[in-house]
Amino acid sequence: MALKIAVMMGGISSEREISLQTGRGVLEALHRNGYDAFPIDLTQDLGAFIRRLEQEKPTVVFNALHGKYGEDGCVQGILNLLKIPYTHSGALASAMAMNKDMTRRLVCAVGVPVADGGLIRRDALEKGEGLPFPYVIKPNDEGSSRGVHLVFNEDDKRRAMTELESAKSVLQEAYIAGRELSVAVSDDGPMGVIEIIPKEGFYDFQHKYTTGAARHVVPAELPKAVYERLMTYAFTVHTTLGCRGITRSDFRYDDTSAEQSRIAFLEVNTNPGMTPISLVPEIAQTMKGMSYEELVLWLIQRATCDV
């Protein structure tokens, strides 16, 4: 039976525009390869979304959504009920990975190092409880570095809390100096490590999605033992959470001290971006010789529902 592919994109999270970029890239790749594929924009009108799926009857859904409702298990649950196979992780793995504090607890229990910290109530943080400066605070359930703040003093904290005014709790982690690294992982194993070097500041949302704002080095130039440890940690995260398809785990590597280096896991992305400057396609191309089109098809071939 010929495949009919729905490319699910857009959504209602703060990452809508990035999801549309990912979705358009996937759709164009499928059309170039002669596949019957169509876009479907997830909005708050769930009835219209389900009716469209029932009308079009896709064989597979490519999940190009990012952030809340698309990457947190919600839409995965709907597709499970409809028995339509979809790409990337299932409902439970997606929900756990979107909860950064839960992910920290799970991966720490199996030996993956994380920075000191954890979930802290807003009122406690405002009173000065928690970690000493410097630290990082961020929402517990956002992706693409949305809402991430480096806090070195009280002024930084006030600005951060103003921007995160709707959050009752935030994730607070000790600031780890050093290098920004990401590891792409497939069900077959780790694919490679990339280093991201922002032109200035840290690798925030702006750097992730602005052409030329950061330089990528793949494979990352690291001591062999460090490179292999990062690959092992990322695959451990992928398997511990029960992820499938492809994930990307982000790490900090502090090699500023001649006496002792340090790795700290930050978060895992269950639906990594597939924009022209996204990290996973670059790693797949450089380390595995896998083109963008081949990566898209690899994911579709492994689409499934939770069983």
Entry summary:
It is built from eleven helices and twelve strands. It is an alpha+beta fold and 307 residues long.
Describe what you observe in this structure.
This protein has 3 domains: 4-87 and 297-301, Rossmann fold (3-Layer(aba) Sandwich), CATH 3.40.50; 97-113 and 177-290, ATP-grasp fold, B domain (D-amino Acid Aminotransferase, Chain A, domain 1, 2-Layer Sandwich), CATH 3.30.470; 117-174, ATP-grasp fold, A domain (Dna Ligase, domain 1). 36% of the residues lie in helices and 24% in strands. It contains 11 helices and 12 strands. The protein has helices at 16-32, 46-56, 74-82, 91-98, 100-109, 122-126, 154-163, 205-208, 224-240, 279-288, 292-301, and strands spanning 4-10, 36-42, 60-63, 117-121, 135-138, 149-151, 169-174, 179-186, 189-198, 214-217, 246-254, 262-269. The mean pLDDT is 92.
List the helices and strands and how they pair.
Layout: E1 4-10, H1 16-32, E2 36-42, H2 46-56, E3 60-63, H3 74-82, H4 91-98, H5 100-109, E4 117-121, H6 122-126, E5 135-138, E6 149-151, H7 154-163, E7 169-174, E8 179-186, E9 189-198, H8 205-208, E10 214-217, H9 224-240, E11 246-254, E12 262-269, H10 279-288, H11 292-301
Parallel strand pairs: 1-2, 1-3
Antiparallel strand pairs: 4-7, 5-6, 5-7, 8-9, 8-11, 9-10, 11-12
Strand sequence of the main sheet, in spatial order? 10-9-8-11-12
Low-pLDDT stretches: none
CATH topology of the largest domain: D-amino Acid Aminotransferase, Chain A, domain 1
Radius of gyration: 19 Å
CATH homologous superfamily of the largest domain? ATP-grasp fold, B domain
Broad shape: globular
CA-CA gap between termini: 22 Å
Tell me what the CATH architecture of the largest domain is: 2-Layer Sandwich
> How many β-strand stretches?
12
CATH class of the largest domain: Alpha Beta
State the helical fraction.
Answer: 25-40%
What does the average pLDDT come to? 92
Query: Any idea how many domains?
Result: 3
Biggest β-sheet strands, sense, barrel: 5 strands, antiparallel
| Tally of helical segments | 11
**DSSP strand (E) fraction?**
15-25%
